[in-house]
Design a protein that fits this description.
This protein starts with a strand and ends with a strand. The strands form four sheets. It has a six-stranded mixed beta sheet with strand order 8-9-10-5-11-12, with helices on both faces. The chain folds into two domains: 2-64 and 147-245, Rossmann fold (3-Layer(aba) Sandwich); 76-145. The protein is of the alpha/beta class. It has helices at 40-47, 84-90, 93-96, 102-114, 130-143, 160-177, 188-194, 212-215, 218-225, and strands at 2-6, 9-11, 14-17, 20-24, 29-33, 56-59, 62-63, 69-72, 148-152, 180-184, 197-202, 205-210, 227-233, 239-245.
């Protein structure tokens, strides 16, 4: 179990999010949702150790080392001529050094194959589309084998097919390895479909932390997103959230 204690967070001198705490089970995936400006990115950056505030992250009661936390930010662009495979290997450069064993290269190629990127292994990163780069950087973070992985809008550059496949593989990888995942998502349907729990941020606070069906209550969405939600059931039984204009 991961226990996370977050102090009050600021952006400059402006308070963004009041103090909160929550827990994640190993192998689980929690979606962080909320309207624009709710503090989703600020929260993830703070947990990743990239803010002035200090967040306490413990696993089994013991402090979790910063290097055991992986983070993929929302904004990215890689102009490097480094090959895709070498970019993946950089994810573990502190451990591998400059002499990369064959075993590590095989592991990187296996992850690329699993994410449908095997044919891109020899291409330079700068030649890839934004969506391809996002998928490669996601694989790079997984290659690091973090205990806790923080993802800020990990599907923002992906088409519909790759949104589903990427989130499905992240969820499966977490369950297989025991890695915990926190993913900031704008799409409430994707959050409900792939996340075990949902943390709702709004009005400068964490206002709900629950299973998807309970977290995405109609009144809460109306109050904080200013839309009227319609709830449908997908073919697989999952929750579909269709927003409609108020009034």
């Amino acid at each position: 179990m991961f226990d996370i204690d977050v102090p009050t967070l600021f952006r400059g001198r402006v308070q963004v999010l009041e103090r909160t705490s929550f827990a994640l089970a190993a192998g689980s995936m929690i979606g962080v949702v909320g309207p624009n400006g709710a503090g989703k990115s600020t929260l993830l950056r703070a947990i990743a150790g990239l803010s002035q505030e200090s967040v306490a992250v413990r696993r089994g009661g013991e402090p979790l080392a910063q290097r055991a936390i992986g983070f993929l930010p929302q904004a990215f662009f890689v102009a490097s001529t480094l090959s895709v495979t070498d970019c993946i290997l950089l994810g573990r450069r502190e451990d591998l050094g400059w002499r990369v064993p064959v075993r590590a290269r095989d592991e990187a190629r296996c992850l690329l194959h699993r994410f449908g990127l095997a044919e891109l292994g020899g291409r330079p990163m700068c030649s890839l589309s934004g969506g391809q780069q996002q998928r490669v950087l996601l694989v790079q973070r997984l290659f690091r084998n973090p205990d806790l992985l923080l993802l800020d809008e990990p599907t923002s550059a992906l088409d519909l097919h790759h949104q589903l496949s990427a989130l499905s593989m992240i969820r499966d990888h977490a369950r297989e390895t025991g890695m915990a995942v926190m993913a900031a998502l704008h799409d409430l349907t994707l959050a409900a479909r792939f996340c075990d729990r949902i943390l709702v941020l709004a009005g400068g606070a964490a206002v709900r932390d629950d299973r998807p069906a309970a977290a995405l209550a109609s009144g809460l969405i109306e109050d904080h997103w200013n839309v009227a939600p319609e709830f449908l059931k997908a073919r697989d039984g999952g929750l579909v959230v269709v927003p409609h204009a108020m009034g």
